[in-house]
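step 3/5: co-fold with flavin mononucleotide
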Amino acid sequence: MAHFKLLVFATITLMASFSTSAEVLPAPQTTGGKPLMQVMSERKSSREYQENQSVSKQDLSNMLWAAWGVTHDGKRTVATAMNRQELSLYVITPTEVSRYNPEANTLTVVNTGDFRKYATLQDFAAVAPINIVMVVDTQKQSKPEFQGYTAGAASQNIYLYCAQAGLKTVVRAGYDKDNLPGILKLRDNERIIWVQTVGK
Ligand SMILES: Cc1cc2nc3c(=O)[nH]c(=O)nc-3n(C[C@H](O)[C@H](O)[C@H](O)COP(=O)(O)O)c2cc1C
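step 4/5: write tokens
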């Protein structure tokens, strides 16, 4: 009986650890790449994406770091007013929705399934492999113009990373405003700014 109880306890513990486990991304490559001035001249929005063309985990790690990674003294790749660091990034793939944890360089699954159609009002984004939702914590930063600055800087960094990596991207204000917050399991103080599509 004691052995049985131990087995049940061990099984429950193991299941709990799986359900809360986070995927560790490859370490971001933070040196090298094309010259910055060339990359800026190549930045653009794209609205045609090949279906079934995945983005590598290395590219995903690199672009998330470019957008919102940790750099100096726990600060970020973009400036934030009063260092409030109010941004969160959610990654929507064909199979799940995950939250980016910059300090650990991990993705934690918050929902399972193909939710891409809720991240867009335009068909092309529903077949792209990656849609990154930018969310701000309005308790950390209440001023919309500061929230917009933070998300805008992160968005531009994704544009620049994509230009240098040969990937396509576009930032989009159009998404399902009724359903996407629930799919991301956002709290009342969290607000979606926009979604950025990435693919090939
Ligand atoms: C705040 C913002 C919202 C945007 N929303 C959309 C959108 O919903 N759909 C879309 O296809 N493009 C969207 N765009 C992309 C712009 O249309 C695009 O940046 C503009 O046409 C200039 O093209 P370029 O990025 O290639 O220079 C948005 C851009 C910004 C900055």
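step 5/5: annotate
Confidence is low (pLDDT under 50) at residues 12-19.
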